[in-house]
């Protein structure tokens, strides 16, 4: 049986995460990842045929890890609890995974999405559809699945929590333990307010 590779995909992507979190997506090059991981350049090229493939793998692994818990939260019962759990997940996951959270404060376009391999772009679209479908389903469980209701869910479970995460990131500090509960309670309050206007 062959010896497991010392410089496996996860180790290289962990190095890429550190670079992106520290200095932004532009710092993630094949050579920089090799240096950060203490791996030969050939090890990076063996696993990622291009920088675009590396950036795609970095983004997709990160967003997949985040979305797993977010999707699980949207299925909690009752649906009002699901809204609060989803909002709280954004903050709790970001606090537990600060480097990966910094990656997600960018967007796929910052990681060269237009140049990604076709299968990577399709994976991104599939993941985004899963989130959209989960929020539409949650809106229906809460009441009429009208666009304003889905828009309110996006505000409560995505925009508000990420604004909190971004504020602490920009301040250079850790996300405090109370932030998760605060965001969850704000999401619940937002949900309780009637939508008015056209």
TrEMBL record:
Residues 29-48 bind DNA. It holds the Pfam family TetR_N. The keyword Transcription regulation applies. Keywords: DNA-binding, Transcription, Transcription regulation. Signal peptide: none annotated. Gene3D superfamilies: Tetracycline Repressor, domain 2 (1.10.357.10). The keyword Transcription applies. InterPro entries: Homeodomain-like_sf (IPR009057), HTH-type_TetR-like_transc_reg (IPR050109), HTH_TetR (IPR001647). Residues 6-66 form the HTH tetR-type domain. It comes from the Bacteria. This is TetR/AcrR family transcriptional regulator. It comes from Streptosporangium jomthongense.
